[in-house]
Amino acid sequence: MSKLKFIFRADNTNVGDWWCPPWRYFPFKPGIVGDILDSKFQIDETDTLLVGGGGLGSEFFRPHLKRIKEAKPKVSILWGAGVDSVSKRDTILADEKQDLYGDYFDFFDEQGIRVFSNPQRFQYVPCASCMNNLLFKYRAKKPMLKVGVYEHKRVPIMDAGNQLALGGLDNSGYNFEQKIMFLSKFEYIVTNTYHGVYWATLLGRKVICIPYKSGLFSFKYPPVYCFNGKIADEHFDRAVAYEHALEESRKINLEYYLLLVNKYELV
User: Fold this and answer.
1) In the beta sheet, which residues pair with residue 83?
2) Phi, psi at residue 259, to the nearest 5°?
3) Rounded to an integer, what distance in angstroms lies between the CA atom of residue 95 and that of residue 151?
4) Of 173, 172, 168, 198, nearest to 186 (Cα)?
5) DSSP letter at 213?
6) Beta strand 32-35 pairing with 3-8
7) Which residues contact 60 (CB under 8 A, 6 or more apart)?
8) Taking Cα atoms as reference points, which of 92, 105, 231, 221 lies closest to residue 155?
9) Residues 6 or more apart from 210 whose CB is under 8 A from it?
């Protein structure tokens, strides 16, 4: 009998990584959970692997994806993972053409990817964290302030003075409600993190993104981009809220779940 194993980046210092795996939200038969970076986590040819989400499509994760491929599991399923084929410490230039897919996930039997593009290469399945019901609770709250800054813990986008004036938080830790509560307080969110854009969008907030990696260009509901890091009135003027982003993201995840459980031994 096939054994079910779940693999994700088990990093409780990065809230997006910690809350992205689908097993947190959907019922599956008993399985084993492993960190993609754990070389001692055994993968057998009889296994059904459910991998994701998180930004696993990168050169950093390539050797770990290669280990999965070479183990030749019975079934390999990708769910809501993203690609960062380019990552820089400073902002990406506006005229740079980004590779949104790479070849990181070509070997998977089922390729549900959080990357959205036109045309679409793999099946679009947004991050499963949209299934957290706290998003409904905080989406219903009216923003009290205008602008909040939500930044990557290793890639700051504002100096301390600006963050104090605007309201600032980073993506460190694993407290999902803390992050969602913060994002919900503002009409506009300025961010450089994937889940900062994603969760703020699901909450119906208007998002301005300062991009430093290619995966920040892969949203179905795109933010306004500020390439030089200098936020101006025109960015606020162009930013929009997407009313149905949460419902659609949840619908797509549920449909993917039903597809998989009807095709494989997952429940």
Assistant:
1) 57
2) -60, -45
3) 23
4) 168
5) B
6) parallel
7) none
8) 92
9) 91, 157, 190, 191, 192, 225, 226, 227, 229
Q: pLDDT tens, 154-185?
A: 898 876 555 555 678 999 999 999 999 999 99
Instruction: Read off the DSSP letter of residue 217.
Output: G
Provide the residue ranges of all domains of the chain, joining segments of one domain with +: 3-131+248-263, 134-243
E strand or H helix at 50:
strand 47-51
Work out the widest C-alpha separation in the chain, in whole angstroms: 59
* CA-wise closest residue to 116 among 93, 95, 90, 98: 98
Q: How far is CA 120 from CA 20, 33, 94, 160, 184, in A?
A: 22, 30, 22, 40, 31
Query: Does the reported pTM lie above 0.70?
Result: yes
CA dihedral (10, 12, 14, 20) positive or negative: positive
- Rg, Å, the chain Cα set: 18
Q: How far is CA 255 from CA 6, 79, 198, 227, 248, in A?
A: 19, 12, 20, 35, 11
Nearest-CA neighbor of 26 among 212, 263, 254, 207? 254
Q: In what order do the strands lie in the sheet with 145-151?
A: 168-170, 145-151, 186-191, 206-209, 224-225
Taking only the tens place, the pLDDT of each residue in 82-105 is: 999 998 877 787 777 889 999 999
Beta bridge partners of 48: 4, 75
Q: Are 36 and 61 in contact (CB under 8 A)?
A: yes
Place of tokens 């459980």: 261
Angle at 53 between CA 51 and CA 56, to 5 degrees: 80
Locate 94 and state its tokens: 């506006």
